[in-house]
Design a protein that fits this description.
The complex is a heterodimer of chains A (588) and B (192).
Chain A: E1 9-17, H1 23-32, E2 43-51, H2 65-75, E3 89-97, H3 100-108, H4 112-118, H5 130-139, E4 141-142, E5 146-149, H6 156-175, H7 211-214, E6 222-230, H8 233-243, E7 259-265, H9 267-272, H10 277-281, H11 285-298, E8 319-325, H12 328-340, E9 348-357, E10 359-363, E11 366-370, E12 383-384, E13 395-396, H13 419-422, E14 426-435, H14 437-447, H15 454-463, H16 480-484, H17 493-499, E15 503-509, E16 527-535, H18 545-548, E17 579-585
Parallel strand pairs in A: 12-13
Antiparallel strand pairs in A: 1-3, 1-4, 2-3, 6-8, 6-9, 7-8, 10-11, 14-16, 14-17, 15-16
Helix pairs in contact in A: 3-5, 14-15
Chain B: E1 5-7, E2 10-19, H1 24-36, H2 41-46, E3 49-57, E4 70-79, H3 82-92, H4 94-101, H5 113-123, E5 129-132, H6 139-156, H7 170-181
Antiparallel strand pairs in B: 1-2, 2-4, 3-4
The chains are: A alpha+beta (588), B alpha+beta (192).
């Protein structure tokens, strides 16, 4: 008998032996079956699996000492012997309301549909005789040793009705009698910039870490990003050898250099430089495949269709050189020197170049950097333990951003990677975004009459901050800042969000759209901003939009409140030419 | 990679992992104790698991002799991304996972997460048929829906939803449940 699980619904499992030679036919039947279980009352979920073979077990290649110890104790270090299930079985497992016999009896009502499935099994009596039919399943059912239900208790009908009622009420509320949103309030001040510690932790080898990993270059007003392709490994290595000493390290950041140079290499770039296959294969799938190949998953419904050159094909860009300087003149001089090294036949080809400039707003005599929607930019970025000043709870272990150092799991980030290539490196996500400023303004205007604070409050609610950066007291869960850092609203809580935080560095491109311009959407004037992020540690951090497009269980967002600046979103404001690739800066 | 079955927002994970028969008893005892302790709070807080089920199999139904190995059958229905689910498990309850899967061959430990993800992915059985009664509702949405329903009864009683916006209590009701009403889910799901 299936024991009582810890809530009203029960879990049942039936393993029926499939007659010899019938497994393939049964699989085909199951895959082509419609939705027969919709007609079996009280079924929450049900699945059918034809088990022909046991999965071959191997010992892990990468494991910590604890797992090794466990293996020694449990298996005395013995590997598994080859294993086969004695016969093919069909596994029926379901969560149902009420006793399992009632479910089996309900299944009998399927008649020919049930027969079509179980006639492939030994000893199936057919659906004609209820007692025999129910006995067939009861005899083959396995007890559950432990079950867990995460959703609140309720029968199938109750849950379905409640969901329908909620949908209906939500629609009524959205179009309803025009309830007003009271003025939004802020009490906390805008975040202060990070300060480095006086004594940097010894395990941070600053001279070997690129500067932008630990600090943004706020005093740099001009930037150019060059996208490179290597055409000949030997020459490209020689060129890289010449550039490497000029790359800005974290040790130089405090001196506020008037120019900075940062380098990222893609997986295809490492391959083009002649890195050995086994080393290339050690990198995680996210980095190996690149974001072009994975964009359909990262940005569902949009994909990489809107990406423009040179990112229109996976692996087409081998490296990105990010140059920034305090003034356009210094930037120009630096670029001239760099270009001199990339003559034809030199093994390195410049595919494209993008320029960026700071947008400056002057308010009350104080200058702030803003992005195209008019919000203060460059706020709130995670703090790195050993480098930044901060409360212990706010500091993240350096391995979250720098490979080869301890991460939040207590593991060494990138343990499985080739050390020489990855140590003190970091994963970099490069993403160019377009912000549809007219659409943003038109939307905020359109709903402004519902807000006591007017259009300013609409914009603040979307972002989660005032324009000066002050956080809202009741930050909407679908707002931009919350999506970038969901705090404890995600499954796994703060612990899990800490594993996924990224450092963000960005600079806007394109001119600021003056307020006076007509704000009709689609006027063809779109301002844009560029965004790049670094994150090291685990490759899992390297998929930001898993959150930002967001809608897993907890941080679900409404269609009308998609994220504005700089976040890869589903909303209408950040559509357009997303270009992105994921790369690592390696050590040379 | 094996096929993971989906029905709307619900994803199925089915893992059958062999272990030495010797450990079937201890594992059953652990699961029994777990059952006595009641539903795990931290798992409930993760709020994206519809159902999870563990069975220790020492003899397949109809088999005369016991199998060479015992098997741990785990099935789960959850909403959201596969990776997110495995990640959350490995970070929230690594020790408990070792207690439950540590007996199985090839278990690499819950942390670091990457080998663990590979292990689960390799052992996830392809599902041939999958059906969910409320494919578009996540666990937290179900919880929200039930709260909305209860609040609706409390504020508006038996009022027909069509007349609700005209009801004097409508404003109070909305203020009360706005957090539960706003979470719409995926853009493509709201078309319904």
């Amino acid at each position: 008998m299936t024991p009582q699980p810890d809530r009203g619904a029960r879990s049942l499992t039936v393993l029926a032996r499939v007659a010899d030679g019938r497994a393939a036919q049964l699989k085909k039947t199951l895959r082509e079956a419609g939705t027969p279980f919709a007609h079996v009352p009280g079924t929450h979920v049900v699945r059918l699996v034809v088990i022909e073979h046991a999965v071959a077990q191997t010992r892990p290649t990468v494991w910590g000492w604890k797992a090794r110890l466990l293996d020694l104790v449990v298996h005395a270090g013995r590997p598994p012997r080859p294993d086969r299930v004695p016969h093919p079985y069909v596994l029926l497992t379901a969560t149902v309301d009420g006793p399992q016999e009632r479910f089996f009896a309900g299944m009998r009502a399927l008649g020919p549909e049930a027969d079509g499935i179980w006639e492939h099994c030994d000893g199936y009596p057919g659906s004609g005789d209820e007692a025999a039919f129910v006995r067939f399943f009861t005899e083959r059912s396995l007890p559950a040793d432990y079950t867990f239900g995460g959703a609140p208790e309720g029968t199938v009908a109750e849950l379905q009705n409640a969901a329908a009622l909620r949908r209906r009420l939500a629609a009524l509320a959205a179009t309803g009698n025009g309830g007003r949103v009271p003025a939004l309030t802020t009490s906390a001040p805008a975040p202060v910039p990070q300060r480095p510690r006086k004594d940097v932790a010894k395990n941070l080898r600053l001279a070997d870490i690129q500067g932008m990993v630990l600090r943004g270059f706020g005093h740099h007003h001009a930037a150019a990003h060059l996208f490179l392709r290597f055409t000949e490994p030997g020459a490209a290595r020689a060129w890289l050898g010449g550039v490497a000493p000029r790359i800005t390290s974290a040790a130089e950041v405090q001196e506020r250099p008037n120019r900075a140079l940062h380098l990222g290499l893609s997986h295809s770039g490492l391959a083009a430089l002649g890195v050995a296959h086994d080393e290339l294969d050690a990198f995680p799938e996210e980095f190996r495949a690149g974001m072009h190949a994975r964009e359909d998953r990262l940005s569902p419904g949009r994909g990489a269709g809107s990406w423009t050159g040179p990112f229109e094909a996976p692996g087409s860009v081998h490296a990105v050189l990010m140059v920034s300087a305090t003034t356009p003149e210094i930037l120009g001089a630096t670029l001239r020197e760099l270009r001199a090294g990339t003559e034809p036949g030199g093994g390195v080809l410049i595919l494209d170049e993008i320029r960026g400039d700071r947008l400056v707003a002057t308010e009350g005599g104080r200058k702030t950097f803003i992005e195209h929607f008019g919000f203060a930019d460059g706020l709130s970025t995670p703090l790195v333990a050993g480098y930044d000043e901060g409360e212990p709870a706010d500091l993240l272990p350096p391995g979250e951003f720098i490979l080869g150092l301890p991460d939040v799991d207590g593991d060494i980030a990138g343990r499985e990677l080739p050390g020489e290539l990855s140590r003190n490196g970091s994963y970099l996500v490069y993403r160019k975004l377009e912000q549809d400023v007219p659409a943003f303004r038109a939307t905020t205007e359109a709903v402004a009459h519902r807000f006591d604070g007017g259009a300013e409050d609409v914009a603040a609610a979307l972002v989660g901050r005032r324009r000066d950066g002050a956080p809202l007291d009741r930050c909407p869960v679908a707002s931009h800042v919350r999506r970038a850092n969901p705090l404890d609203t995600l499954p796994g809580g703060t612990k899990l969000s800490r594993r996924h935080l990224m450092l963000r560095r960005g600079i806007p491109y394109g001119p600021y759209l003056p307020e006076a311009r007509p704000t009709t959407a689609g006027s063809g004037v779109c301002s844009s901003s560029r965004w790049s992020a670094t994150s090291a540690g685990s490759s899992s951090s390297c998929r930001p939009s898993g959150w930002a497009t967001a809608t897993s269980s907890a941080a679900a967002a409404s269609r009308t409140s998609s994220p504005p600046p700089g976040v890869p979103g589903r909303g209408s404001w950040s559509r357009g030419s997303h270009r992105r690739t994921c790369r690592s800066r390696a050590r040379w | 990679m094996t096929v993971t079955a989906r029905s709307g927002r619900s994803t199925a994970l089915t893992v059958l992992s062999p272990m030495p028969r010797l450990w079937a008893g201890p594992l059953r005892a652990i699961l029994y104790v777990r059952k006595l302790l009641g539903p795990a709070r931290d798992l409930q807080r993760m709020s994206f698991i519809h159902f999870a089920h563990w069975s220790v199999i020492t003899r397949f139904p109809g088999q005369q002799r016991p199998a060479r190995y015992a098997y741990l059958l785990f099935r789960s229905d959850f909403n959201g991304d596969w990776d997110e689910y495995i990640d959350a498990f490995s970070i929230v309850i690594p020790k408990r996972m070792a207690l439950i899967w540590g007996w199985s061959y090839g278990y690499p430990g819950a942390l670091p997460p990457e080998p663990f993800r590979r292990y689960i992915r390799r052992n996830d059985l392809p599902v041939d048929h999958y059906w969910s009664a409320y494919p578009e509702s996540s666990v937290s949405e179900i919880a929200s829906a039930l709260r909305v329903r209860d609040k609706y009864r409390e504020h508006l009683g038996d009022t027909d939803p069509a007349d609700a916006p005209a009801h004097p209590a409508w404003g109070r009701f909305l203020t009360d449940v706005q957090g539960d009403l706003h979470a719409w889910g995926h853009d493509d799901d709201t078309a319904a």
